[in-house]
Amino acid sequence: MNVVTAVIKGRHSVRKFKPEPVEDTVIHDAIECAVHAPTAMNLQPWLIGVVRSKEKLQKIADLTDHGKFISEAAVCFTIFGELNAKYYLEDCCAATENLILGLHAHGVSSCWVAGAKKEYAEEVRKILGVPEKYTLVSLVPAGLPQEISIASKKDPKKLVFFDKFVQE
Question: With 90 as the cut, is the pLDDT of residue 150 above it?
Fold first, then answer.
């Protein structure tokens, strides 16, 4: 296993964070990882917000259905996609995953919280003053984990097929 696959395999969602802030250098590096994501026609239709204000973190947390823990994160990244880009959802999801892996490589944990198609997406956009041509794709609350754990995953042999699926 190399360093990249170790980072990927070691990452899992965390919803409980220590109160310490995330260093600016980590935030900037993770954003650079996000903007290096694959993107259709190299449009890069994303807009990435960094929310550290406890007041705004609380407002966003209160709006969500499964993200109440956002209020306890040191930072929450907001990934918006430009609506007129045909593949904004795919591109912004790739950027979200790169951001998450960039954070994890620095020991910062996170959890992908849905934004696309959620009722609160428009309100989050308004709270952050994002132009109407963008829509919320994902929220990524992040911070130092309260505890280190390893998540179990399904056996890949049960999830993969080659050439043609055969029901067993």
Answer: no
Helix (H, G, I), strand (E, B) or coil at 20: coil
Give the pLDDT confidence score for residue 163 in this predicted structure.
Answer: 85
Q: What is the largest CA-CA distance in the chain?
A: 53
Angle between helices 3-10 and 88-105 (to 10 degrees): 100
Give the phi and the psi of residue 109 in degrees, each rounded to 5.
Answer: -95, 160
58, 123 Cβ separation under 8 angstroms: no
Burial 40-56 (b: 16+ CB within 10 A, else e): eeeebbbbbbebeeeeb
| pTM more than 0.90 | yes
DSSP string, 74-141: SEEEEEEEETTSTTHHHHHHHHHHHHHHHHHHTT-EE--EE-TT-TTHHHHHHHTT--TTEEEEEEEE
For position 75, what pLDDT does the model report?
Answer: 98
Q: How far is residue 13's CA from residue 65's CA, in Å, rounded to a whole number?
A: 17
Give the pair of three-digit tokens for residue 10.
């070691």
| Chain mean pLDDT for the chain | 94
